[in-house]
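Closing statement on the magnesium ion sub-project.
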Amino acid sequence: MEDNPRLAEILLIEDNEGDIELTKEAFEEAKFRNNLHIKMDGDEALDYLFKRNGNEDAATPDIVLLDLNLPGTDGREVLEAIKENSQIRRIPVIVLTSSQADKDVLESYDLHANCYIVKPVSAVKFMKVVRHVENFWVDIVCLPSAVYQRESS
Ligand SMILES: [Mg+2]
């Protein structure tokens, strides 16, 4: 935690309660401080990302974990909306989905997903993957939000 005193803001867009619980647990055990924001459907997620409809004070996430199959606006459309917007397109979007369909993999990259991960079925493996995501995307990657922070300090 001392290595990385910065607070990481993570947006999880996921409708499966079991996966939400496992992701929460993995982030609670993370070695860096983090705020995990959870949105269970695409429309709520877009309101949060675009800071509208009561989300005016929302923290801009450092990274987004995105499920593809969501109620309301689905994950593909959420991804498209993020990557079409010059204000938020730099936020890395990690697609984390149960779909292994080639079409979904390719379409997600076409829409500029930053990476595509198929959810492991077992809970133990799922948490392991979430920990890898944390370590890589928060501890190792140089994030655009870190640059913004340097610029403003
Ligand atoms: Mg889903």
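Helices lie at 17-28, 42-49, 75-84, 102-110, 123-140, 144-152. With this model delivered, the sub-project is considered complete and its resources will be redirected to Aim 3.
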